[in-house]
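User: Show me a protein chain along with its predicted structure.
Assistant: Here is one chain, sequence first, then structure tokens.
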Amino acid sequence: MSSPATLNRPWSCDTFLVAADRAAAGATLLAKNSDRPAGECQPLRFHPARTGGGTLELAYRSIPDAEATYAHLGASPYWCWGHELGLNERGVAIGNEALFTRPLAEAITRARAGTPDEPGILGMELLRLGLERGGTADEALEVMIALLEQYGQWGSGVGGRAPEGGAYDNSFMVADATGGWVLETAGRHWAARKISSGTWSISNQPTLRRHTDRMSEGLPDLAVRSGWHPKGPDFDFARAVTDPMTPLQASQPRLQRSRQLLADAGAVDERRAMGVLRDHYEGSFLDGPFFSAALPDLLTICMHEHPAGFTWGNTASSTVCVLPGADRLARMWWAAGTPCTGVYVPLWVEAQAVPAPLAAAGSHAGQVQPPEVAERDHFDPQSYWWRFLQLLEATKGGQLAWDFAARQPVVRAAFDALEQRWLAEVPAVEEEAIAARTSDPARCASILGRFTESCVAEATGVLEKLLVDFTGSLDDVDARWSTAEVAALS
């Protein structure tokens, strides 16, 4: 596997929004693949509402907490307080992307010269703060903009790296039942566009050009003074802030592939959204990777680490959030690890919990650590996330993935059958839970929680059978996953 010295910048993740008018069920969809270093565990956790204010200790800053927050589900790198993706009790969902901008490049230059900028709030932290404080997509947007302008975002978003090697600016997709916002940032500056119809995809480059609905004060003048943009009435946000020294070949093909798949889909349902997140350019003029998706020739929407280190690790978790409005239940379909070898299980904030294996990291379960000194997490058979990384490696059959092309269809056939059945069962489960929501919230939570637990148990049973089929007895394969072997993935 790649050594830390050869790892490239965090230039993958893909997020898209499908507004209600394009969604098959008439409910907004927000979908995201979170791509992170291979071996960086990303559990999914339930975070209850808080009251009383106080102080929040973030990676680099202490900030006042809100007097009241919203309960939410969030998937986070094991060391991080913030989230890569999440859904709150009011039906607000958010995903983020790394951006490489001119202000970021200048901040890195200053840091390398010994005069670093004041640390700020990481993009993953801004995402969680938006979920905790925003009862609508509009409110979450206002929260995130205010915090960005006050504190900035300079800091490392990569465990084990200093900001000079791990910092990035961020774009966000912020969604609710009415649609949502694209928020793209460059240092403390930003632009936003309202998405009320159709679809919108983001990747690791600014996508907002001349049509923005809102923008930070003074940005066009700054861009002209700095030589980022010619003077004139047609200000192009992406042209102004994109770092010209960061190549877009890592993001542009994935961005356009996501847009193509959504444009060709007609009405987009949950299953179709999952298919986009599993894509490796199959059926395109590229016809997928030359050898196998797990030994990629280029960066794909469903991301896999390449031994040469040119890709940004693996997809660490994936979600499709369904946001139907106040009289219904918002739900999250979540898959641990690469979605092409994973299975999406349904979850609801109203369940007030997630099954314990989903929330478990490995050796660093429950610990939040500063990014520069974050220690590697290691395999734990009680962690659902680690089990799915184990399945990915077993499906590959080795670093060069000789067995992936034969084994991955076997994995998909087994998990597709589960997903299709759960998709058919969810409406009845939700109707029962909705009937109890007002008069008996505890029963509502129990109905939803029991269903998720049954799905997780089924998924785990299928996973363990696949591991045995591919590698031998489960005890033997667990024994082979020594600390040294797992560390090679990190």
